[in-house]
Structure formats: structure tokens, C-alpha cells
Amino acid sequence: MNFHDCRNQNPKMHNPNQNTKAAKIGIVLTDPDDWTANAFLKNIRKRGVKALPINLSTLSASISTSDFFIFNADLKDLELDAILVRDVGISFALEEISFKFDLLRQFENSMIVINHPTAIQNASNKFFSFYLFKLAHLPIPRTIVTFELEVALKTIKKFGSAVVKPIFGSQGEGIIKLENTQPESELASKLAALLKERGVLYLQEFVPNPGRDIRVFVVDEEALGAIYRLLRSGSFVSNLSRGGTPVKCKLTEEMEELAISAAKAVGADFAGVDLIEGEEGLFLLEVNATPSGKGIKLACGIDVTKRIVDLLFERIEGKK
Ligand SMILES: Nc1ncnc2c1ncn2[C@@H]1O[C@H](COP(=O)(O)OP(=O)(O)O)[C@@H](O)[C@H]1O
Ligand SMILES: [Mg+2]
What we know:
By secondary structure, the chain is an alpha+beta fold. Helix content is about 30%, strand content about 25%.
């Protein structure tokens, strides 16, 4: 077999607007044991439709003047009708992550892909998402992004208490808290080390909070439920992967409106939206466009993956 045998010659697969029932849906994932990925697979298979786990790292692309196609390690076309993205995978290698998103973008050209790759990129970028939130007039903590150590030091003085985050980060990793009560030399050496490692500093005003944050799940402009994530003692990050505890949270109108607007601002069809209760009201911390559904299932019994799969089918069938 040569590469050209695996080109997709099935025209049915490349019309996203047609009203045919999907035959095979790809779930983009990295961890085959992940709860959310498996819930997606199960909910699709329950409908009698094939669901194929796909790790983007196993795909290759062939491109020439006359041809373009994607193939797997067996040199075969994936023959997909739609894609649901659970997890693209973390990578700090620019070419690797860029190629993964380019694969998703070209899939989107010929089939339904949710979330849209652009929405995932917008959401995962803690600077650009804040820019979109600002344009949408949503409440966000003051944030400074700078290449300059001096600017960073002045920012800590101004904020009093600040968190320094990676622009592309998740699961509470790489976030540190700095206070202007710390000696300036200590602050300068910590910031200089971070600047050397990251090339840019993202500093955000610390929002004093009641020892928890709120994750609201939004699917198709509807808030399905929310959990508080209680801080583990001694920690200021509430991520479940860092010892936070999920507890049922009653949705208020303010939470619903903010979470729905935030998901919309980045273009996400489904999202886990992180909010924090400041002294004067809610602040938006981030939108996760590849959220885990496990915490809300455990704390509230709500299966967001089912609603996401329903939305995918509504899209495929042209109803949405
Ligand atoms: N400005 C802030 N003030 C107070 N706590 C914060 C702030 N930013 C983040 N946190 C805490 O850190 C956690 C992780 O921050 P977040 O911005 O959501 O990054 P990640 O993508 O790593 O989850 C939040 O869920 C919250 O508990
Ligand atoms: Mg978060």
C-alpha cells in the first residue's frame, strides 16, 4: 500500500451541511482511561453509531498540488463524519501543537468539529481570552502581561497580592502567588526566573475569595449546573487535579449569565467556566473548552457529556 491509497474518496463525508445520520465519530483524546473521553464514547455508541478514539499524535498528513489527505499509522483514512474534541494534549513545542490544531482546522473544513478549534485556542490562551471577555464587557480581575521585569515588580506593588500564571496552562499548574510584603530582592529573583523560563510574565490581581471557586458547565448557551471547588488546606488553587473538592453549587442568574456570555465570547459550544466570588461580585477566571465532566457527575449527578453528544448529533443532523 502506498500513501495515496488512503486518500479519502468518499464524497459523503465532506459535506457538513447534509442531513445524513453520522456513521462514525472521532473522539480526540490523549488519555484512553479518561472519564470524560469514555463517557463521550459510551454516549455515542448508545446511539448505535461508531465512535473512534483518536490521538492526534498518531496522524499524518500528505499534501501535494492535487491531493490532500490525513492518514493513521496503518496508512488508512479515518473515514470520519464528525469529531468531538475531549483533549488535544499539552505541548510546549510550537510546531507540534500548531500541527495538531491545523489537523483539527482542516477537519472542520469538511465535517462538524466541536468545540471549534478556534474556540479551543481562544479559551486556552489566558491573554487572548481575557481580551475577548473585555470586549464582551465581562468582569475579569486586573491583569498585566509583560516582558519587562521592572513592570512586573511595579505590578506586584500595585496589586498587593498577585498570581503569576502561564499564558497556556491548565490544572492549576505553574501558578504562584506573590505578595508585595515579600522583600523586593526575593520578588525580583522569582520573577526573573519565571521570565527566563516563560519569556513573558502574566500577572493577575489575586481575588480574595471564600476558599473556593465555581465551575459552571455550559452547553449550547445553557448552563446545566455548577460545582464549587473547595480549596485544599494550604492551597490557593482549587483545581480538582490539585486536591480541590467538588461540591454541588446552586446556580444563580448571575452565574448563568456570566458563564453563558463567557463561553460565547470565545466561541465554545460547550465549556467549563471558572468563576470566583470577589468581595464586590463574581469575576471570570477562565473558560475551559475541553472540560472534564467527572466532577459535576460526582457532585451533582449531571452527565454533561450526554448533552454534548446530543448537541453534536443535532449539528450533524442539521437541526442546530
Ligand atoms: N486571580 C485569582 N485570584 C484568586 N484565585 C485565583 C486567581 N486565579 C486563579 N486562581 C485560583 O487558581 C485556580 C487555577 O486558575 P486558572 O486561571 O483557572 O488556571 P488553570 O487553567 O490552571 O485552571 C483557580 O481555579 C482558582 O482557584
Ligand atoms: Mg481553571
